[in-house]
Automatic annotation (TrEMBL):
<dbReference type="InterPro" id="IPR054609">
    <property type="entry name" value="PF0864-like_C"/>
</dbReference>
<dbReference type="InterPro" id="IPR011008">
    <property type="entry name" value="Dimeric_a/b-barrel"/>
</dbReference>
<keyword id="KW-0804">Transcription</keyword>
<keyword id="KW-0238">DNA-binding</keyword>
<dbReference type="Pfam" id="PF22482">
    <property type="entry name" value="AsnC_trans_reg_3"/>
</dbReference>
<keyword id="KW-0805">Transcription regulation</keyword>
<feature type="domain" description="HTH asnC-type">
    <location>
        <begin position="20"/>
        <end position="80"/>
    </location>
</feature>
<dbReference type="InterPro" id="IPR000485">
    <property type="entry name" value="AsnC-type_HTH_dom"/>
</dbReference>
<dbReference type="InterPro" id="IPR019888">
    <property type="entry name" value="Tscrpt_reg_AsnC-like"/>
</dbReference>
<dbReference type="InterPro" id="IPR036390">
    <property type="entry name" value="WH_DNA-bd_sf"/>
</dbReference>
<dbReference type="InterPro" id="IPR019885">
    <property type="entry name" value="Tscrpt_reg_HTH_AsnC-type_CS"/>
</dbReference>
<protein>
    <submittedName>
        <fullName>Transcriptional regulator</fullName>
    </submittedName>
</protein>
<dbReference type="InterPro" id="IPR036388">
    <property type="entry name" value="WH-like_DNA-bd_sf"/>
</dbReference>
<dbReference type="GO" id="GO:0043200">
    <property type="term" value="P:response to amino acid"/>
</dbReference>
<dbReference type="GO" id="GO:0005829">
    <property type="term" value="C:cytosol"/>
</dbReference>
<dbReference type="Pfam" id="PF13404">
    <property type="entry name" value="HTH_AsnC-type"/>
</dbReference>
<dbReference type="GO" id="GO:0043565">
    <property type="term" value="F:sequence-specific DNA binding"/>
</dbReference>
């Protein structure tokens, strides 16, 4: 039995890019199909022992390559309104992003190129709740404008981005 390679960073790639071997990629794909799949079953699928799979998964988690989380459906939990909000700002975008990240209802914050500086996704209980969140966003001193895109119907959502 060979010792699993450590997750290594490729100096020729973007900073922080992790280079995965084929076995690690297969382990990730197994977990993407079922995040609760036992390590023994994954080991059988990829040709490793349960302990070797456990070690590799821990390395992948520690390196920030993946997370294993429960994904909920907001609609079944009483959150009837989802929206993407585009924000135009001036000043330090990282500072604005930090302030936005502190708002509990915002679950996604990304700095963008183009006509909008930052995009955030919100999950809220009602249109009134959405208005309250918009008020919090607009109260940030360097926010100049917002544009709200209310989700009418979720057509596709996937978390399987692959491993290249």
């Amino acid at each position: 039995m060979t010792t699993p390679p450590k997750v290594r960073r490729d100096n020729d790639s973007r900073p922080g890019t992790v280079v995965l071997d084929e076995i690690s990629k297969k382990i990730i794909e197994e977990l993407q199909s079922d995040g609760r799949k036992p390590y023994a079953a994954i080991g059988k699928a990829v040709g490793l022992s349960e302990a070797a799979v456990r070690q590799r998964v821990q390395r992948l988690l520690d390196a920030g390559v993946m997370q294993i989380v429960a994904v909920t459906d907001p609609l079944t939990l009483g959150f009837s309104r989802q929206a993407m909000i585009g924000i135009k700002c001036e000043g330090d975008l990282e500072e604005v992003a930090d302030e936005l990240s502190a708002i509990a209802e915002i679950d996604y914050v990304v700095l963008t190129a183009g006509s909008l500086d930052i995009m955030v996704e919100v999950v809220c209980e009602s249109d009134q709740h959405l208005l309250e969140i918009l008020g919090k966003i607009r109260a940030i001193p360097t926010v100049r404008a917002t544009e709200t895109f209310v989700y009418l119907k979720l057509h596709k959502q996937t978390y399987s981005w692959g491993t290249r």
